[in-house]
C-alpha cells in the first residue's frame, strides 16, 4: 500500500467518519474512546507534513458536501421525476465507487448499492423511450470526489408527451423489466451464511421464508448497513419502528443483529399484511409508510390494490415492489405472487368452551 493511501486512510479513520450524516447522532461524546477534536487536529498535523502536491489528486468530501449528496438522493427518490433520477445516475455511481474504497463507508455503500438500481433503471428507460428531456451530465465528477450536480435544465417549454411519460412509468413498474435487469446477478456474498437462519426465523413467525430476500434489496445483506436518514440493519429499521417491534437501540443497537432484525421484520410484515391484505401493498407500506398507503387507498376511486395506487407513489416505491418480486423469483426459482399470506396463531378459547360444555353434561373431556 502506498504512503499516500495510508495517510488518506489515517485521516479518514480519525476524522472523516465524524462528518458522515447520522454517525454523530448515534454517539454521545462519552461513547468515544478518543477525543474527536484531538484526532482531527492530529490528522491535520499529519497532512501538513506531507510534501506540497503529494495529495493534490485526492479531495476528501466535507460534511456539507456529503449532506448535500445524501439530501439530493433522498429528495430525488421520494419526489423526483424520471428525468431527475436519470440526471443523478452518473453522480450516484461515482459516489458509490468512492465509498467502496474505504471500510468506514461500506455500511452506506451497501445501502446505496441497491438504490443505484432505481437511478440506473430511469437512465435506461430514457434511452429506450426518448423524448424532449434534458441530457445527462456530460461527464462524471472528478475521481475521488462525491459531488452534487446542478439541477437539470427546466423542461416546462418542452413537456414530455403523455404516451412517452406513461410508457416510461409502465416500464420501470414492470416485473418483466426487473427480471431482465437482475438476470444473472449473483447473490450478495453474505447471503449464503445468513439466509438459512433467517428463513427459520421467518417460518417460525408464520411468514413465507422466501421473503427473507427482502434483505438484499434493503441492505445488500450487510447487517451493519445504514441509510443517511437513520435506518439501519439487514431490514433497515428506523429507530421508532425498531422499538415498536422490540428492538433496543441502547446499549447495543439490536437493529445490527441479524437474527433480531429478521424477527422484527417478519413481525412487521405480518402486521402490514393483516392491515392491507396483499404482499404488494405490504411491501409498498414497508417502503413508503403505512400512513401514506392508507391515505391513498381511501382516496382512490379505482381498485384498492397496489396497481390501483402505484402511480401515486414515489418512484422508489413504484420500483421497489417489482424489484422484490424479481429478486425472490431469481433466488428461489418461484413465482412470488403464489406465496401464501402469513399464518396466525389459533385461539385456544374454542377448546375451553367445548371442555366446559362436556363437563356440565357429565361427560369427561378427551
CATH class descriptor name of the largest domain: Mainly Alpha
Rg, rounded, reads: 24 Å
Q: Which CATH architecture of the largest domain?
A: Orthogonal Bundle
How many runs of DSSP E, i.e. beta strands? 0
Keywords:
366 residues; Lysozyme; disordered N terminus; single chain; disordered C terminus; mainly alpha; 17 helices
How do you describe this structure in short?
By secondary structure, the chain is an all-alpha fold. The chain is built from 17 helices and no strands.
Blueprint (SSEs and pairs):
Layout: H1 3-14, H2 23-26, H3 36-48, H4 63-79, H5 82-99, H6 106-128, H7 162-173, H8 175-182, H9 191-204, H10 214-219, H11 239-244, H12 258-276, H13 279-288, H14 290-299, H15 306-309, H16 315-332, H17 349-360
Description:
The chain starts with a helix and ends in a 6-residue tail after the last helix. The protein has 366 residues and is an all-alpha fold. α1 runs antiparallel to α3 and α13 packs across α14. It is globular, with a radius of gyration of 24 Å. The chain has two domains: 138 residues, no CATH class; 148 residues, Lysozyme (Orthogonal Bundle). It is built from 17 helices and no strands.
